Amino acid sequence: MTRHTGVVRTILGLSLLLCLSLLPAALHAQAAQAPAKAPADAGGQLVPLPIQLPKPMFEGTPQNLSVPNLQKPLGRPRDPFLAPAGVTNVAKGKKVTSSDMEPVIGELEQVTDGDKKGADGSFVELGPGLQYVTIDLGAPQEVYAVLFWHFHKTARVYFDVVVQLADDAAFKKNVRTIFDNDHDNTSGLGKGTDMNYVETAEGKLVDAKGAVARYARLYSRGNNANELNHYVEVEVFGRPAK
Ligand SMILES: [Ca+2]
Ligand SMILES: [Ca+2]
Q1: CA of 128 to the centre of ligand 2 (A)
Q2: Which of 56, 95, 145, 149 is the most exposed, fewest CB within 10 Å of its CB?
Q3: Are residues 134 and 37 in contact, defined by beta-carbon separation less than 8 angstroms?
Q4: What is the mean predicted confidence (pLDDT) over 34-39?
Q5: Is the pTM of this model over 0.85?
């Protein structure tokens, strides 16, 4: 054995020793990192709602509408809304009833038919004054958000918008109001603190915070252009209640 190979062997031996001594530390570090991910998996991962927006029918949001208590447009797309993975639109194709069972234009089925285009033929027109639509979700659902489009062909503001969830079709049992911009209680459903807003292709998204309900009801009382009430689509994002 030359002196040179001896040195190489010593270096190799030391390197091996170093690797072996570092291995437990590396394994330990990995083990310490692993539990950090576990609670998120155990508690259910939050993901953006699978929202599919229709094509906008006008650019931007007009700022010159003379409507009081009007929310300032965000000027950018809405932030993703997070909900448990697996939450879907449980209102799609579900039965719709209304305070106006014979719409002026269109059919009530259009409220949940999945067509969100804003053009003529894609919205239902209900009579003047206070009107509502009720959606039967078929079974109790854990509701995370209600997303709705009254009209988005032109910029409009619908008045006295109230969104409620309930256990029964008559809205007597366990009624919860999750949105209310009827600030002077014209409709008698309670004074609301939410603001008026301009309808766009993004629709209006209301947080329902996982409330369990079988029925969703949306009220309005005409709009800034006329006394009539319209719906392009209503989506209820949820999952079957346990
Ligand atoms: Ca529709
Ligand atoms: Ca009012």
Answers
A1: 15
A2: 56
A3: no
A4: 38
A5: no
